[in-house]
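EI: anyone free to look at a 389-residue chain?
SC: sure, send it
EI:
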Amino acid sequence: MKISQNFSVSYSYNIQFTKDLFDPSNDTLHAVLTSSEQKQTVKVAFVIDQGLYDCHPTLIDKIENYIEKSEGIELIAPSLLVTGGEQTKNTTEEFDKTLTLINQAKIDRHSYLVAVGGGAVLDMVGFAAAVGHRGIRHIRIPTTALSQNDSGVGVKNGINYFGKKNFIGAFSPPVAVLNDISFLTTLDDRGWRSGIAEAVKVALIKDSEFFDWLENNTTPINNRDLDTMQKLIYTCALLHSRHISSGNDPFEMGSSRPLDFGHWSAHKLEQLTKFELRHGEAVAIGIALDVVYAQCIGLLKVDSCERILKLFGNFGFDLHHRQLLSKNASSINPQLIAGLEEFREHLGGELTITLINEIGKQFDVHEMSTDVIEQAALVLKQKQQLHAY
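SC: here you go
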């Protein structure tokens, strides 16, 4: 005897781009909060990145003023400030605080929890929203270049556990993603640069014309021209979201994850450096390592490899870190290689690593040679010493 059951759930959300989101004259957030057919007052609470608040000390006042002037919306709790950056994911402390807010403010499935901050805060708050009452509505307001063009636009949420990146989490799409470009003006140079790494990544696996555009626009991007960065973020977010919606695997049940190009070593480098390296910085190194690896095994042409390394260099990225190699700096760090098995475990099934065989075209491999990884790491070390990228 058996009962066969089959159903599907359709998800739909908008990624919107705006400026001065909490100005009372901007109705973007109000329209999202009041878009459902429910007739009663909409209840909402906010979780805010402490680092963002330090740069925007009037933010909470602006939010309260915005909600006060928004008909049909009620702010049901004071805004919760949480630690920003990867630290918010490294323990359960901020996660527990967010669940406590959900409980004490009686945030239910008809209410909204809004996360305002960088990618790590969005990941943590999204996970709390996914498990609170088995899922409450959450809205993402990414405030860094990296979260606006990559982590904030997808469907993944989670925190780190057992010393492993994103070990626990949930796939739970947001109700909306609202990108406010004005938040980018207070990023430090490292924060500004970090988001560029994911743009290079998605160009390498999806769109050679976007790669050409990045090459031709390094100067205005480096000079922090907001219009140019907005185009970078929009294009990157578009390519990411298209992959999620059209790749037939939005919740990553398979083994191939092209959007994790360069990430097997990047995630491990973040851990090995105790998150001294920011995610985008680690991704740049991880991509460089895999690009040189692909060139060493004859998969990628030398001139393409050099173009990629040069572009990263022009954006100011360091493409080597001492943690790539062992203490004597002559052989690969065995702890880095352990990241391959952790990556396979996280994926499930066989090891699947995305490489490229030309700019704009991805290629999956199911094994990597430790000797060639070591060779690639030594090449990056030499190039750094010679300032050759």
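EI: The mean pLDDT is 94.
SC: 👍
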